[in-house]
Each structure stands twice: as C-alpha cells, then as structure tokens.
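[Automated response] Your request has been received and processed.

Submitted sequence:
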Amino acid sequence: METTNKMGTMPINRLLLSMSLPMVAAMLVQALYNIVDSMFVAQLSENALTAVSLAFPVQNLMIAVSTGTGVGMNALISRALGEGNCERANLIANNGVYLAIFSAIAFALLAFFGSELFFRMQTDDLDIIQQGTVYIQICSCLSIGIFLQIAFDRILQATGRTFYTMLTQGLGAILNIILDPILIFGLFGLPKMGIAGAALATVLGQMAAAALSLWYNKKKNDDIVISPKKYGLSGMAIKKIYSIGIPSICMASIGSIMTFGMNKILISFTSTATAVFGVYFKLQSFIFMPVFGLNNGMVPIVAYNYGARNPERIMRTIKLSMLYATAIMALGFLAFQFFSPQLLRIFNASEQMLEIGTVALRTISFSFLLAGFNIISTSFYQALGHGFLSLAGAVLRQLVVLLPVAILMAKIQGLSAVWLAFPVAEIATLVFNIFFVRYIYGKELRTMPKKETPEMA
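Generated structure:
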C-alpha cells in the first residue's frame, strides 16, 4: 500500500520549504519581539538591560527544557506516523503535554525561592539584583504558557501542520510587542510597571499562543487525539520522549551554563560588556531563528522517512537544509560586519557600549559562516535518535572549547579578545560534525533496506 502522507511523497525541496517557511516567518516575528522587548527595556536604564541580560540563562533553561522535550515528541510522533502506528503517536503526544505541565510547576517553585540568590551570584549592584529578581520571578512563575505552547506546536509540526505554528507563534510575539510599551510605560491609564511590565507582557503573549495552539490541535489536527482521559501517564512513553529529549535539554542547558559563565567573565571588566552580550543574543536571534525554523521543518521529514526507510529522501533533505542554513548565516555575517554600530544604536547604546559592542559583533559573526552546517547536523542526529551525539557536540563547543578559550583570552589579551572564543569553538564543532555525519550515513543510511509495505506496530 503506497503512502499518501506528503512527507513521503512530495518533492523534497517543495516539502522542506512548505514545512519550514511558516515556521521561519514565525521565528522572525519571535526574533523581532526579542529585539523590541530589549529596546523598550533599554529605555528604562542600562541597569535594566543588564538585569534582563543576566536573567537570560534562566529563560534559556526554560526554553531548553520545553524544546528538548518537544524534540523527543516531534521525532517520535513523526516516526510512529511513518510506521503507521497512530496509537503510539497519540500516547507520545499526550504524555508530552503532561511533561510540559510538570516542567512549568518545577520552574515556578525554583524561581520563587531562588531568583534573588541567582542574581547575587553574578553582581553586587542592588538595583540590578532587584530588577532582575522581579523580572525572572514573573517569567518563571507564570511559565505554563511557554511550556504548553511549545508542546502543542511540536504536535502540529510533527503532523506537517506548520502553517498553524506560524500563526500561534506570531500571535504570541505580536501581542507581546503590543503589550510591552503599554505595561512598561503605563499607557492608556494603566500603571507604569517598568521591568515587571516587560515580564508580564511576555507571559501573557505565551499564554495566548498556547491557547491558540491547543485549539488548532483539537479542531484542525486529525492525526493526533489530545485526550487526557484516554491517554494517561505512561512510563514507557516518558522514557522514550526523554531518551531523545534529555540530550537535547542538556545540550541547550549547556547554553545556559555558557551564558552564565560568559556573564561572569564580562562583568569583571564592566557591566556594559554584559549588556553588550545580552544585546548580541537579541540580535543574533534574528539570524538564528530562521535557521531553527528550517530545523523544525526538517526534523519531521527526516524522522518520517527514517521510519518509512527512505534514505534518499533523508539525504536530499539534509543537503538542502544545510545549503539554506549556510546562506542565511552568511547574510547574518554580512549584517554584523557592516552594520554593527547601527544595530547597537537600536538599544540606546552609549559610546562605551558602541565601542565594546562593535568589536564583539564583528568578531563573533565569523562563527556564523560555520554555524549553519553545525546546527543542521545537530538536528540530523536528533531526528535519527542519536541524541547523545547532539549533546557531545554541544559540550565540545560550549564547555570544552568556548568557555576555556574565553577565560584564556580574557587573561592574556583582555576584553576585545574574549569574543574570539566563538569562532574557535565553531571550528572545533565543525570537525566533530563532519566526522559523525559521514559515519552515520555510512553505517545507517547507505545500506538501509527500503520498506515495501507499511508496518502496523
């Protein structure tokens, strides 16, 4: 019986673009929100911008847990559908939603009791500590929106309905952008909330996006049934989700450790350097987010065709994804090289911030030229169930190479040399990925037997 699912039949280039472009558009809107959010916060004070920058590791950790769990859900749901096993797909999807709720509760408790301590570990400035504590407590204690949104969006992505994820993410980001100035500066008769308003705008946007994503899954997604009554907690399903998701969670969590470490290195020079690093992450999201959108479109295609045993479609998808990702990153490199001062002025940059930031953006952007290949390689491992390789690459890049090189450069040549750690780490990761992509292709895909009949497991 011939499959009729578009992930097994549609021409790869058209399929990849149809799956990815809606998510790329949504990610661009999300990146725009990141920039606008910090732009408004920067108008409060440089301390407020520094507080948000120091809070980034906690926010990144929430995203790490939610997206890592989502990676496990996405790959397993797509693979189950490729094998024709709808019941397994439903079980995975519903248990992924349970995990999202449990994760939100855990972060709320951690933030309520540990936020102030987290900021005191990084700075002695009482104003930064106070503003940062308020910001992260609101974002974490009301994080149920982001966890559920990502879970529901991954279900839509796994079944090929990426257009709806564009709408859900777009709604959240646009609502956030609208609410930011209203709540931060107290427009239309509302009280001026400052940095607390920025945090509240964020969580309200996330909750609205989660509600819309749930509605799309219930009304527009015929492949998956979300029913807590029918599909209860399953140890087997949770184990399978985390067998793929935990390496991804750890991989992204390592990013939080890296950011925390970099903030400690930079604030030893000046708090402005820390603000620059925070601005860099906001700006680079406008470049990396489209690549992550491409990633999200690629993973279910690879996972589905892995389940359907079609190696030709897998490799065609990987090659096209690497080509598109590299092109996007090259555009980002050019933007940072030629427009760094203009980009920094968006955030009300002082002369000192311009001086430090221009060097930082131009130096770091050399890593972009290799990052596209490395990002797609990471998702290739995840889609085929090799989460450990994704984790190993992240450990190599951000702990084994990046932080030690940054510490060494800070001691030997000072602040301007710290940024060289990023391209050095990307080169090391490139060598790692070239070896293992070739290894997996030779071991698993080149000799894969084609599937003749669908298996109903």
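Summary generated for your ticket: The first helix runs from residue 6 to 9. The two ends are 16 Å apart (CA to CA).
If you did not submit this request, please reply to this message.
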